[in-house]
């Protein structure tokens, strides 16, 4: 694939990830638990993992986190967003590339959600200098399984359709 076409695909994925993240901020989910969201931008991360290089995946996640932080809640959320986003992307990439026989895309998405939530709690603990935030982990782990299954199901369908239609076939060569 030529570099211009690949760069265009990466830019489209970055823009989609940003838009999905921003839309998710204004569309509330009917769960009265603070910090729980679907994580729909994870769909874009999984698409990137399936079809792009590791550095491209990290670029997409990094730029999404920075832009969404600046446009929404401010840079004070950046340590949470970057840590959760990048560590979950790394975990999902490793599972997809190295343990694909053991994990479906749904399973990979669940692991990504668990890593994301756990990483954010770790950042909160470091910033606050308190470990009490880890009492919240059971709630976030349950929500991670549910939201991971939802985004994983959508991701699985999407990656399957992209493969079936050969949309990114040039990237794979």
Contiguous helical run count: 7
CATH architecture: Orthogonal Bundle
Can you identify the CATH class? Mainly Alpha
Structure classification: mainly alpha
Poorly predicted sequence stretches spanning 5 or more consecutive residues:
none
What proportion strand? Answer: under 5%
What is the string of SSEs from the N terminus onward?
HHHHHHH
How would you characterize the overall build of this protein?
This protein has helices at 3-26, 42-51, 54-71, 78-98, 105-128, 137-165, 169-172. The protein has 173 residues and is mainly α.
SSE diagram, text form:
Elements: H1 3-26, H2 42-51, H3 54-71, H4 78-98, H5 105-128, H6 137-165, H7 169-172
Helix pairs in contact: 1-2, 1-3, 2-4, 2-6, 3-4, 4-5, 5-6
Quick overview:
75% of the residues lie in helices and 0% in strands. The chain has 173 residues and is mainly α.
Give me some keywords for this one.
single chain, 173 residues, mainly alpha, Arp2/3 complex 21 kDa subunit ARPC3
